[in-house]
Amino acid sequence: MSPLAFYPLAFVCIASAMGVVLSRNPVRSALSLVASLFCLAVFYVFLQAHLVAALQIIVYAGAVMVLFLFVITLLNLESDRGLGEKPVLSAIGFGAGAIVAGGLIAALSRTSLGARAVTLVPTFGTTKVLARQLFGDYLVAFELTSMLLLVAVVGAVVLAKRDGSYEGDEQEAAVPARSEEASH
Amino acid sequence: MTQAINSGLPLIVACSWALLLIVVEMFSGDRRFVGVAWMGVIGLAVTAAMSVHYASVPAVYGNALALDGYAVYFNLLACTLGAAAMLLSIDYLGDAGIVRGEYYSLMFFAVIGVVIMAAATDLIVMFIGLETMSMAVYVLAGIRKSDLRSNEAALKYFLLGALASALLLYGVALLYTITGSTVLADVSKALSDTQHAGADHLVLLLATGLVLIGFGFKIAAVPFHLWAPDVYEGAPTTVTAFMATAVKAGGFAALMRTVLVALAPMRAELAPVLWGAAAVTMTLGNVVALRQTSLKRMLAYSSIAHTGYLLVGVTAGTNEAGSSVLFYLAAYGAMNIGAFGVMAALARRGRGCEKISDFSGLAQTHPAMACAMALFMLSLTGIPPLGGFVGKLYVFTAAMHAGLVWLVVIAALNSVVSAAYYLGVVRTMYFDNAPADVLPPARPYAAVVVAVAAVVTILLGVAPSPVLGSAARAFSKVLLG
Amino acid sequence: MIGTVHYLALSAVLFSIGAVGAVVRRNVIIIFMSIELMLNAANLAFVAGSNSLGSMNGQSIVFFVMTVAAAEAAVGLAVILALFRNRQTVAADEIALLKW
Amino acid sequence: MRNALSLLVLTPAIGALLLGAVPNGAEALMRRLSLAVSLVPLAICVWIWSVFDTSRGDFQLVERVGWLPQFGASYMVGIDGISLLLIALTVVLTPIVLIAAAGSVHHRFKGYLVAMLMLESTMLGSLVAIDLLLFYVFWELMLVPMFLIIGIWGGERRVYASIKFLLFTMVGSLPMLAAIIYLAMQHGVGAGQVGNLSFALGDLYGTHLSPVAAQACFLAFFLAFAVKVPMFPLHTWLPDAHVEAPTGGSVILAGVLLKMGTYGFLRFALPLFPEAMVAASYWIGALAVIGIVYGALVAMVQPDMKKLVAYSSVSHLGFVMLGIVSLNTAGVEGAVYQMLNHGVSTGALFLLVGVVYERRHTRLIAEYGGLWKQLPVYAVCFLVVMLSSIGLPGLNGFVGEFLILLGAFRFNHALGAVAASGVVLGAAYMLWMYQRVMFGPVTNEKNLKLTDMTRRELATVLPLIALAFVMGVYPRPFFDVMRASVATTLAHASKATAARDLAAGNQPTAHAAAGASIRVRESPRHVVAEPEGGGAAAPAEDSAVPAAGNGEAH
Amino acid sequence: MHAAATEVTASLPIAVSYLRYIPLAPLVGVLFHVALGYRLGRRAVGLVACAAVAVSFALAAKAFLTVLGSAAGTVVTDNVYQWLSSGEFTANVTFSVDALSSVMIMVVTGVGFLIHLYSIGYMAHEEDYARFFAYLNLFTAAMLVLVLADNLPLMFVGWEGVGLCSYLLIGFWYTDPEKASAGKKAFLVNRIGDAGFVLGAFTIFWALVDLGQGSLTFATINARAAELPAWASLAGALLLFVGATGKSAQIPLYVWLPDAMAGPTPVSALIHAATMVTAGVYMVARLHGLFEAAPAALQVVGIVGAATALLAATIGIAQTDIKKVLAYSTVSQLGYMFLALGVGAYGAGIFHVMTHAFFKALLFLGAGSVIHGLHDEQDIRRMGGVAQKMPITHATFALGVLAIAGVPGLSGFFSKDEILASAYAGGHFGLWICGVLGASITAFYMTRLYVLTFRGKFRGDHHKWDHAHESPIQMTLPLMVLAALAVVGGYVGVPEVLGGNNAFAEYLAPSVGHHQLGLAAGTELMLMGISVAAALTGIGLAWVMYSKGPDADLILKNKLGGLYQQMREAYNIDAVYDALVVQPLMRASDALWHSVDVRVIDGVANGTAAAVNSAGEGWRRWSTGNVQHYMLTVLVGVAALILALTLSSLIGVAG
Prior knowledge:
CATH class of chain C: Mainly Alpha
Number of strands of chain C: 0
Largest interface: A-C, 91 and 73 residues
Helix content of chain B: over 70%
Number of strands of chain B: 2
Largest sheet of chain C: none
CATH topology of chain C: Helix Hairpins
Shape of chain B: globular
Largest sheet of chain B: 2 strands, antiparallel
Structural class of chain C: mainly alpha
Radius of gyration of chain C: 17 Å
Strand order of the largest sheet of chain B: 1-2
Number of domains of chain B: 1
Strand content of chain C: under 5%
Distance between the termini of chain C: 54 Å
Oligomer: heteropentamer
Radius of gyration of chain B: 21 Å
Number of helices of chain B: 19
Number of helices of chain C: 3
Order of helices and strands of chain C: HHH
CATH architecture of chain C: Orthogonal Bundle
Helix content of chain C: over 70%
Order of helices and strands of chain B: HHEEHHHHHHHHHHHHHHHHH
Distance between the termini of chain B: 28 Å
Strand content of chain B: under 5%
């Protein structure tokens, strides 16, 4: 992948990531997150991870981000004042972030990764090869993820579904909101 | 092939039992879900029994899971602690306004998560196990939806958990990029090869650092401990009991396997970090616990302190130190389940039982409960001849043997500080006199669990050899070479 | 020529941005999104790694990471919803009942 | 009977559990049951005394049961002369305290009796334990019942006092745990592998430690025992604990608990670290003498009777420590005997202070005056006990103090002379207190209504007074019991002490010869192949079960 | 077993078993009084008390006669049991009677019996009757143990026992705080002396152990004294002498005796005149071998004796309380005894002990009878002309005065003269001059006392004079017996120069050695003349000055000026001791308690606790509840770790 393509795309990706963090309106930050996901998908293609790129767009950008947008609109959140109120917190945050990024980049720049010249098999990154691996070496992991998803769904249902344990619903069964108030 | 199947049976049975639980829950009518609870407990018992039965044949799944002695030990530990937590919850939930049957299935899934973490020999499988457990416990923490503190606990636990998982994952990613594999044994072999020494040394250091931080969060080591007090205090007491014992054990299972197997070659650089973490965690946990007025929050900080003591064992890193951590986890589990059990037994809607002052004069109103609580407090302090003392003794001996003399002295002095607040509780129960509105009588199920916990604590102190032996056997085959 | 290091560097930057985002923003959902960003950074690192190693493991790991992220999203949003229903706020500093 | 010692230790504990079952109402039943239970150890002790072979200096009636084979720690109990005497003191004091409890303790009576019996059980346990870890277990366990006794049945500032007592002792004893582990490990260092760790005292006698390690371990042991004694700078917990503890608590605290510190020095610190102990004997002696004078001086100005007796305990135990550090037969035998005397006289003093406290509920000396006219029997008892405490010849205090001063004088003239001044100061504060309380006109009209001692109170004090007379006039049986054991203990440090005495200019005391002459039976397994041959050969520990079986494959 | 004193013939031990009953009898008396005293009434108590002492007296006499009858140097011993043995130290309860102790036990039991008899009358209207006789019997028992003991530890038992009884008896009327603190003062000063005694015993013991024979029996000490290293014998002797000064009220530890007058008069007679105070003299005489081995120590004894004699005599002149005068006179006479020991005349010292016991007991009991008759009037300035009302007391008291003044023919003359003669013979002229001067002053103040009390007109209030009456027979009979003894007592030791054979000295020779004066008869007679002259001048001067009444004191006052006031207040040495020792001690202990105990040690303890708590509070505030802060902490933690690892690896690589 030629530098001409990499750098502008990288720039867009980073800009949209910053957009997620800086924009005041949650919807705009959600959309900028979607933008950065797309850039990543493009990178995946360049890295010959075709199926992963497709999954990224369908699963991630499609399903997960939609869920986010759905929740944001459901709670009709108005924009808050962004980074304005806590300058100290933001300053320290950015400082620490810079250190982390700097440290990682410094470490990575000194690794011997560059020296690995590996010619990839043409079928690298295709669905067939990935599938054979998923159901071969990673069969156990694959089955376990199914259980993970089941737990997530059950959990989501338990928490999100309205089932009468709030004051609004049934008065008698409701628990006084601040019953076990720990008065400190 | 059949041999692989039937030795994997415990895990398969466990998962199917959990699914069965959800189905049964749908059809159970009464609001207290006693049936589901007992199903859960029996399920755990079956899993434990089968894993012991099949323990003789260590099954290795490709290189994802290894149901070896180590995994079986944790399996047993997690199942017993999970069952205890479920029994505690039977009559606690109804009163606490939790009308969700899924409580037990989620707890069951959490136990399965712990088992996977203990058995995993591949970082990714371990990660998935970690996430399964975490998902279940995030929901359990927030299960009392009407109570703000429970919601807040769930949110904090979720956010920080997600952050920690991201950190852990990034560490694994770097490790994968450099060493080419995520299987613990391969990673360890790759790390020990000389060619990685030079240039990649720094990246490897950072990667191991990030992985350590990921697990550090799970066992609530300082400075990644801030979530623990709030979540322990916010979550329902029985969930806190489960978290403080089984979840922490899972965290340590994964941490130990990773640090002592995969990252073994890096241990030279890691030792000072671990040493520092152990010392600071112990001291902070004990010192802040001194200042607490809520018993739940105090027990949270006390569990942080005990993480510090356990880290001493991990820092030592020898075979003996590993088994001492295993034994300590068992003793610590029994003590804590008991302590939280007493709180659960006496809590009623509208009359919380979380502040230490609620326990004043307990010796006069509930002599049995007070005696059990005193026993747990003494054992947590490390007063002989209880389980806590033998646990500490074993860890200190191992650490001393590995040359960490000063760390042991710091731990010894920490025990003195811990005596101040643990015996502060005993003082409140025995010295002060009971308030006007006396605490209600203890609940039957909870009382049974507390009694069993008390007996186990005493047995671990007086006749610990069987457990000591199994801990040593369990850890004997974990270290490579 | 763009090598694996460039991609890893990019993932490091994204990772840091996500981390910073999680810290500085008040809105819980934005924090959550930042964490998702960090996960994506990890994915990028995995893919870059698998490309440099020439083995497909990395990509299957990405697959698992995505499922975990999805699960996390589901539970996370459920938690946020439950909290919102009680407190009508998603500002992190207003949710500070449990302290000291 | 085979395992007399285990029976001795367990009976009070079992009694306490039985007592727990008694319904709260039946006070009389509780009293009788608790007394009966406390008499059983007394009977066992008498039996042990009768069967005790005074010629043997090493441990007798040894029982050994595997407890923690992984660590090489075992439930190993045995006694020698010194521990037998202290056990006798414990089993005598506890029934007396239980009798006194009926009069003085009113609320949660059953809890008090249970705590007292548990306390007796733990104290006996630590006196018979000859496995270092088992000793540590009982040493820590002793704190809990005492903590409860001071905390629940104490005076106004009982909570502060009980926590201070607990933390002071724990700060001392936990570094000792680290030292014990280090010591046990050093023993196993020969075979490298942890398995061959051993906490048995017999094995540990010969352990070789680098001088620095020996010094450090000795300091850890010293700290733990010095807090308990209490020695000078670490003593401030004692006045608070005594003042706030109920009468029975103070008696047992002064009578037995304080002796654990000095017993610890003799049983553990001296034999395990002979060179370090001898090297440190000068500054420990100095601390002891400071303790004597400081305790006496501060006692002079105490307004509160119990605090005065507490500071007198600091002074008396300063004497005991001086006796131990003199490391010659007279000094150490005097020290052991003074431990018994202090238990008898100070125990009686606290009982008597309790008598008056029950009636007037104040301990301030100023509140009393001219009691002799009101309570003649009380005054006479108080007089005899006071005289025994200040060491009047003919009573027990004198014998101990005389021998300690004799030994101390041999060790170091200056220390001996200053300690002798302690005797004078001791008489001063006691007589002054006695005069302000007993003599002079009756200043406070409340004192006019005081009634003399009841039969129950007399029953608690008279045995102690009789004991004081017997121990003063005919101390032979006690000395016979401890002679061989003291010689064996000193034999451990004989080489180092002889060197010290030579350096100090007086001939090596005959005891070095006496120590060697007392036939210390060598058992082949224990002879440590030391270049000098003799030296600190560990005394034969002829346990029934060969002690080698520590920690093979479990 | 008992090596005899150097120049003493080998002693022949006669083992008996009745000696133990001598101290036991009074002990039985004590038990009786304590147990049954209050129930059986006065008569029984008095009877039992006197009977007990009588039994002791009989047994003592039997022992005395045995020793007297058998060959010189015989020792009657009764080994009861081994009291103590630890390492090299052994102490047995062994009673032994040789010449020296036979004299002492006869004096103790004899005079004791008379005083018991006298007390029945004196304490007749006292309600705590039984308690008094219990103490008296206990004292007698303790004194007998002291005298009969055959080794230092057993002697020390008696030594402190008598100290205790003097404390109890002085503070007998305990309701008066004055008297109680006088008792306490006596015990404490004795205790200081006893500390010296104990240290002395240790020095000697360990020195003997170094010689290979560790034992504290008197025989061993005296036998091996010469072989002791010089420093050991000197230090031992001096420390033991400190004990003696404490017990026998010599400088500097005599301050307790004048205050001891607070006790009932028979107590003063028995304890502070006849028996207890002589214990110090007896001890030094008993250990003469040791003192001879350290001549410097003997010098000190002599000088202290002489100084005390003079000092106490001067104070005696200015006292107005009848008992105080006698008290200072006792201190002075004890000075004489120590002077005798100082010059090596142990026999003379003991002889003076015996004679002093007789006449000083007589004087005290006489004074008691006067006080009793005048209803507790003790100030001699408000007495006078008592002779008419109390003829027997007057006669006996007069005899006593003559005896103590050293008028020839009476016992005082013989014993005092022998001391002065020995002093002169030994070449100690300074001591001799002090002795003579002291003798005249003694004569002066005794005559002053006699004249002011018995002569002239009664100066007190008439009410007392009208009721004054002679004491009952129980009191006057002992007076008469003692008067007889005071007169006859001297003839036991008449010196050769006056035609006697000095039987007393001969008798004591085996125990304490007897060395001839070695003076020409002429010089001896000349010395005798000088001392008689001194005595007579004292008597005459006092008689002339005081026959007109007490205002003669004014003459002395303006002649001696400020000195007289000092003498009146006994040079207020009490105030000096109080300022130098007691007050600083109290202030120090108060300061120690508050500053060291409370502020320093507790300060440190509570300080650390507070520090740990504040650290806890600080870290507790760290969890603010806001998720963002938690996230920040995690991020900062990550950043810190990355930074640390990068730096360490860079240093590692570079290093």
